[in-house]
Amino acid sequence: ARRAQADGSTSREAHAARGRFDNAKSISSAQFFGDDEAPRQERDARIDQFSGATSISSSQYFGDDDAYGSSSGAAYDADVGELGAKVVDGGRKALNMASNFLSDMSDRYAQ
User: In this structure, what DSSP letter does residue 37 have?
Assistant: First the structure.
């Protein structure tokens, strides 16, 4: 009896779906299952806020900026500043080593 009941409700659902979408060329799962329009409106509002932008990141689109630092790029700027300081420090060390090498060579061959 339980199977007949399940088959009967499935048959009714299939018949209702055929009636609603009989002439449709295609349907989305949202149309078939009657999903709420709120997610669509939220998505459209998110897309509208980026109109005119030349590029956006997925974290900006999905609102995950806080997971990777502020949306202004302050964390990125700090990393670049730190990298710049390391490059300058490395350059000074290389210059010091080259200077010592040339000084040593000059002392050896000057005699």
Answer: S
**pTM, full prediction:** 0.31
Collect all residues with Cβ–Cβ distance below 8 Å to 21 and sequence separation of at least 6. 27, 31, 32
Q: Cβ atoms within 10 A of the Cβ of 82, count? A: 10
Q: What is the 3-state secondary structure (H, E, C) of 51-78?
A: CCCCCCCHHHHHCCHHHHCCCCCHHHHH
| Residues 45 and 38: beta-carbon distance below 8 Å | no
pLDDT-flagged residues of the chain (< 70): 1-9, 35-38, 65-78, 111
Token output for 75: 């964390």
Contact present, 59 and 65 (Cβ < 8 Å): yes
The counts of H helices and E strands in the chain are 5, 0
Nearest to 39 by CA among 52, 24, 28: 28
Express each pLDDT in 52-76 by its tens digit. 888 888 887 777 755 544 545 555 6
Q: Cβ distance 65 to 71 under 8 Å?
A: yes
